[in-house]
C-alpha cells in the first residue's frame, strides 16, 4: 500500500535524521514505526484466530507454549492404568 502524507518540516527532518542514524531508508523506518505501533493490535487479532486456521508451525508453537506453562504446577504423572478405559468408566461398561 502506498500512503502519502504531508508532514511539518521539523517532523520530516526528525524522520530523516533518525532513519539515517539507524541506517534505514525513510520508507523502511516509517514502516517499522507503524508496525511497532500496531504490533499489540496485530497480535491480539492473531490470538483471536481459532487453532484450525493457524499454520501447523504456529499451532505447534502455541501448543508447546501452553504445555510448558503447566510445568510450574508440579502435577503428578499418570500411569497407563490411571488413564485406562476401565479406570475411567469402571463398571458402567462404556
Describe the 3D structure:
The chain has 94 residues and is an all-alpha fold. The chain has a domain at 9-72. It contains four helices and no strands. It has helices at residues 9-21, 26-48, 56-68, 85-89. Helix 1 (9-21) packs across helix 2 (26-48). The longest helix is centred in the middle third of the chain and has 23 residues, at 26-48. The N and C termini lie far apart (59 Å).
Summarize the structure.
The protein is an all-alpha fold and 94 residues long. It has helices spanning 9-21, 26-48, 56-68, 85-89. Helix 1 (9-21) crosses helix 2 (26-48).
Descriptive terms for the model:
94 residues, mainly alpha, 4 helices, 57% helix, 0% strand, rod-shaped
